[in-house]
Design a protein that fits this description.
The complex is a heterodimer of chains A (427) and B (87).
Chain A (H helix, E strand, L loop, with lengths): L1 E4 L9 E7 L6 E2 L4 E6 L4 E5 L4 E6 L6 E3 L3 E6 L25 H10 L17 H7 L11 H10 L17 H9 L21 H22 L2 E9 L1 H13 L8 H15 L5 E4 L2 E4 L5 E6 L5 E2 L2 E2 L7 H17 L2 E2 L8 E5 L18 E5 L3 E7 L2 E15 L5 H16 L5
Parallel strand pairs in A: 5-15, 12-16, 16-17
Antiparallel strand pairs in A: 1-8, 2-4, 2-7, 3-6, 4-5, 6-8, 9-19, 10-11, 12-13, 12-14, 17-19, 18-19
Chain B lengths: L2 H15 L14 H4 L4 H15 L5 H4 L5 H18 L1
Helix pairs in contact in B: 1-3, 1-5
Classes of the chains: A alpha+beta (427), B mainly alpha (87).
């Protein structure tokens, strides 16, 4: 018998809210199956099981907040060692006092209904299954939300589930969000996130505050504990650009590569070649990581960040990196990341190219020991073979933990990134 | 393709990514990417959809120049005439 525990979904996570069970006692589960949805301060996350077995008992109800490591469910027939019993299970406090029942949530999940947009007919507005089923006829399609509307909503803490769209097919337009911003606060508690069928235990304001607090705590710890050193270099991307242009002629238009994919891959491969920067500082010593699990720092424009992981990124080819990047970015914005995608990276990358800044000098995510930053790719004058030319240049920076390495090692990483970007045909 | 048709095609396509995109109030030379906050992934999608709708492949060299309503309209009109002659 083994346990399914609250996973750690990021270095700064101390507790999580169980939002929803996707399994019930008696169900057979396999390693990698998504069994629950958990809300961290930052996002709703689909959590996978780490063992094979049969669900014996679910020990935590939706809405409960439990610390990382707490047992959520007992598994039978799993290989894991017998864990502590449920008796000592710490339960902090319920976050949503009138959360819909698991059945209702599950049904809504199946039907793709956003619970935030549903008014319950039960006492105190509690949702019943019939409320959900009513909505399912005809089967609802999630309304499209324009990127502008989405960003406006994020920036102003508007729950899109409470916004009615006036665009074609019910699409939510920026004007709809502006109207919602002008309207008085909704009477119904915001319990959902309109961007996906998974639900949030926190409303937009609470989430923004929790995310801010969590970033504040982690970054303060980083600056308090980690003696950072910083290096920077300018890389000529002409060869990579030319090579990508060539590749893009053969690729379907929708699968074209963008420079960010080449930069991420170069960072991952360089981390493989300089293992002193790929790992974690734990208990006063550096522990190298076995794989290069590259953390991709994504800005959500609401002031928050998510860091999904490209596992074993150095083993991927550029098309795979491109596809993963597109997929992770889309799902991070929609709050549909999986637990394994939020595991601890071995090194992280901040890519602010689309924001148009020249360089980003990062703050390391402890217990990692390095952060690579890429600025915008900008055509600039550059000396080539003794002549002045216009080349696409990017500023690459490194913030590294001086306890783990000295600048000579850091310099090697940046030089390796440069070398990889000068030989794109080898990727 | 006439300039009006090209402009309508851009607007239809843009609305698949940005549902409330309205070109009527937009200056002909205004930057599409910054106006509609398209990141590099959104822009790849726009060019992909435009290419499908126009019925000819838009190469990356040309896509780089599709920065404004004016530029897109001129490109579509010229290129469709060119494709028409070849056919």
């Amino acid at each position: 018998m083994g346990d399914f525990r609250m996973p750690s979904l990021g270095a700064d996570m101390e507790e999580g809210t169980l939002l929803e069970w996707l399994v019930k006692p008696g169900d057979t589960v396999h390693r990698g199956d998504i069994v629950a949805v958990v809300d961290t301060a930052k996002s709703a996350v689909e959590v996978e099981c780490f063992d094979d077995g049969v669900i014996d008992a679910l020990l935590v109800d939706p809405g409960q907040v439990v610390p990382v490591g707490a047992v959520l469910a007992r598994l039978e027939g799993s290989a894991a060692a017998t864990g502590p019993t449920s008796a000592g299970l710490p339960v902090v406090s319920p976050v949503t006092p009138i959360a819909p029942s698991p059945l209702v949530r599950h049904r809504a999940h199946e039907l793709g209904i956003d619970l935030a947009a549903v008014r319950g007919t039960g006492a105190d507005g509690v949702l019943h299954r019939r409320d959900i089923e009513e909505l399912a006829r005809p089967a609802p399609t999630r309304p499209r939300v324009s990127p502008l509307a989405r960003r406006l909503a994020e920036a102003n803490g508007i729950n899109l589930g409470t916004v009615s769209g006036t665009g074609a097919g019910g699409a939510i337009r920026a004007d709809d969000v502006r109207k919602a911003m002008a309207a008085p606060a909704m009477a119904a508690p915001a319990i959902g996130q309109a961007t996906g069928p998974t639900m949030s235990g926190l409303d937009a304001d609470q989430r923004a505050t929790a995310m801010r607090n969590s970033i504040a705590a982690l970054m303060s710890r980083s600056k308090r504990e980690i003696p950072h050193y910083y290096l920077s270099t300018t890389v000529d991307l002409q060869r990579t650009s030319d090579w990508m242009r060539e590749r893009n002629r053969e690729l379907p238009v929708g699968e074209r590569l963008v420079p960010s994919a080449a930069l991420l891959l170069a960072a991952a491969r360089a981390a493989r070649e300089v293992p002193e920067l790929n790992g974690h500082w734990v208990d006063g010593a550096f522990r190298p990581a076995a794989d290069v699990d590259l953390g991709l720092i994504l800005s959500l424009r609401s002031g928050g960040l998510l860091v999904p992981v490209l596992a074993a990124a150095d083993t991927l080819d550029i098309s795979q990196v491109m596809a993963l990047m597109r997929d992770l970015t889309r799902r991070a914005r929609a709050g549909r990341l999986r637990g394994s995608e939020l595991s601890q990276p071995s090194i992280s990358v901040s890519n602010l190219g689309d924001q148009g800044v020249e360089s980003v000098i990062g703050v390391i995510y402890p217990p990692q020991v390095a952060l690579i930053g890429f600025g915008a790719v900008i055509p600039r004058p550059w000396a080539v073979d003794g002549l002045l030319g216009i080349r696409p240049l990017v500023t690459v920076t490194l913030a590294a933990d001086h306890r783990a390495t000295d600048a000579a090692i850091g310099a090697r990483l940046l030089k390796t990134i440069d070398r990889i970007l000068q030989t794109p045909e080898e990727t | 393709m006439t300039p009006d048709q090209a402009r309508a095609m851009l607007e239809t396509t843009l609305r698949e990514i940005v549902p409330d995109a309205d070109l009527s109030t937009l200056a002909p030379g205004a930057d599409l990417r910054s106006t509609f906050e398209l990141d590099s992934l959104d822009f790849v999608e726009l060019v992909d959809k435009l290419s499908t709708r126009a019925g000819f492949r838009i190469e990356e060299d040309d896509a780089d120049g599709l920065r404004s309503v004016e530029a897109v309209t001129a490109f579509l009109v010229t290129r469709s005439a060119h494709v028409g002659q070849q056919a």
